[in-house]
Known about the structure:
The protein is α/β, with parallel strands linked by helices. It folds into 3 domains: 10-173, Beta-Lactamase (2-Layer Sandwich), CATH 3.30.450.40; 198-414, Phosphohistidine domain (Glucose Oxidase, domain 1), CATH 3.50.30; 447-755, TIM Barrel (Alpha-Beta Barrel). 42% of the residues lie in helices and 16% in strands. Helix 14 links the parallel strand 15 and strand 16. Helix 1 packs antiparallel against helix 2 (28-42), helix 7 (268-279) packs across helix 8 (284-298) and helix 23 crosses helix 25 (726-734). The protein is elongated and about 90 Å long. The protein starts with a helix and ends in a 5-residue tail after the last helix. Mean pLDDT is 83; it is low at 1-8, 174-182 and 243-255.
Amino acid sequence: MSISPAAVTGPRRLLKRVRDVMAGPGSAEERLGKIVTIIAADMVAEVCSVYVMRAGEVLELFATCGLAAEAVHRTRLRTGEGIVGYVAAHARPLNLRDAQSHPNFAYRPETGEEIYHSMIGVPILRGGRIIGVLAVQNRTERQYTEDEQEALENVAMVLAEMVAGGELVNRDELIPADGIALLPLRLSGARLAPGIGKGTAVLHEPRIVIDRMVAEDPQEELTRLREAMRGLQKHLDRMVEAVGSIDLGGGEDTGDILDAYRMIAKDTGWLNRITEAVNTGLTAEAAVQKVHDDTRARMAQVTDPYLRERLHDLEDLANRLLQHLSGQFQSPAFGNLPDDIILVARNIGPAELLDYDHTRLRGLALEEGSHTSHVAIVARALDIPVLGGVKGVLDKVEGGDPLIVDADNAQLFVRPSEDVRSVIDGALKARAERKALYARMRDLPAQTRDDVNISLNINAGLLIDVPHVIESGADGIGLYRTEIPFMVRSAMPDIEDQTRLYNRIFDQAEGRPVVFRTLDVGGDKLLPYWQDMTEENPAMGWRSIRITLDRPAVLVHQLRALIRAAHDRDLHVMFPMIAEVAEFRAAKQLLDRQLEREAGRGFVPRSVKVGAMLEVPALIWQANSLLGQVDFLSVGTNDLLQFMFAADRGNPRLEGRYDTLSPGVFTFLKHLVELCSDRNVRLTICGEMAGRPLEAMALIGLGVRRLSMAPASVGPVKEMVRSMNARSVEQYVLSLLDSPGKSLRSGLKAFAIDHGVKL
């Protein structure tokens, strides 16, 4: 949408008048009083009022033209109360012809506002946070125009600098009572990447200070904006080249995630909104900040994980664009940093994380973030522990504070006491010693004391994971999640890109077998270029093999790429989330046709093995038919158990309600082991259950002989395997199958201790 010069003359004039008052003499409240008078006159309104957010999320009337003067500082509204509170709660403008008919209208007799009908309120935003509300009212019913609303939003952005600057309300007032202090503090979060890290707090605050909000020459600002965009694009191009040595799983395009950034940076909708804001009278910097604040506020209540993460990508780009506009390249990543960094941020994009020397990063603590975010994927690949959802961490941590990120137990220690430090030091020392032990065990067989061989394999999803198969001494890759390179791209990778990626996986595995799971998306794994995937119950919805059978071209392209990469090599293909034999047969028919097609083009694998993932319990009742058609079967325990117990594994309210070590699980898996043994079909357990020593011991007792796990789990599980006697464990486990208890965990632990099994 373009805006004509005539249409913006009024908004520009109003902005300049507000700017002149803000730069003039008088106290902040005196200047605010003049500003509301100017706005009321310019909009031909009887009332203009400014409400400022106070501690406790209470909005206080700070200035008014038109309402009773004695109402200033007396009228207060809770967030969500009244029209003003509604605007604050939703961070969105509200334009009402008859405000008194709105269900949120709240009458305050001290204001004398009962005679006013129409009303428009806009949020005063700073950094995406509500810090006040600007409201205009008229006696007559009128619908305020889009230009008037745009003008108020621009003025609100200018006012945000006054409010946030501490001239009206002390900035310290909004810091929570348990915030910055000398006392130790423990904060809870969610584990996004495992591990323990100890170091010094570095606050990731790339916010640029905007000194000039109102433009003198809009055309000059547009020229500056275009030049800054060119600079940003060149910077991203250089960054893609610079991180080539940190392979994130994108074939030759090693900066897949950064490529997605480059696509977002070229998004015409984002650029058009910034251009429109410049045309209304803002400087280029102010326009970028305004568009970003509007976007962040509008998306504050969005729960879709992909959309939330794209907001973080946009925030990173907005900060980078502001750096190019202002020349303020002030990221802490380029400063004088400690050797042991614990990075603290509201959220952070993967490009921002890669600005830091990852060899000095000991941990990451985020106010937001999710397990499927780009930064979590990259951090796990770099073995950096990450905590997300640490509420208020930026209010409670100062740069230079000693911090401990205990992601394994989902907690952050701020200014830890000596006893906590001592415990963590002991844990870190023990962790280092055990890692050294596991390294020495790398070439030893995973063999029990009674000579039962167990095949230990790793799960992988990024190229950077693949070398772990060599480093850990694993037998191979029991599960390669092919969807991650799809998730971090801005467009579907074509056959050539996929072929290059799979070739590199084969090469880095150095002859060890790799089981490629075909595309498993949907549920909590969303692709940025597929729309309309929102569902009420996504875990049990249109996902995984259901999507690729409905969109066979996607699966066909992936199968062709796998076949080409596997030329003269062994190919293992596994189809995920098979719920009935017919689905497996349909997928295998597609594979057979592609094998025939590619053979005609000279691409012939040395051997082909085809398997299925058992994640849906219904498949066990068709096992006899299925086992006659598969070369191997893998159990994805994460999904299998949530379906068995009808318990969403992502719901914290259900955490701990059901145990993986329950009699029902044991009975199910024992039956499956016997079926596979009778039909001579190789069985592997691939879920998180396989990587925990106690659970792995129980699985071996049930007769499982192949496990696939995170690379870091290979050492602990191998140590456990070499300390156990498989037959004695089997006898004990089988005696528990008819137990009426909820969990067999305590009994298994006691058995392990009594028999010297190392957990």
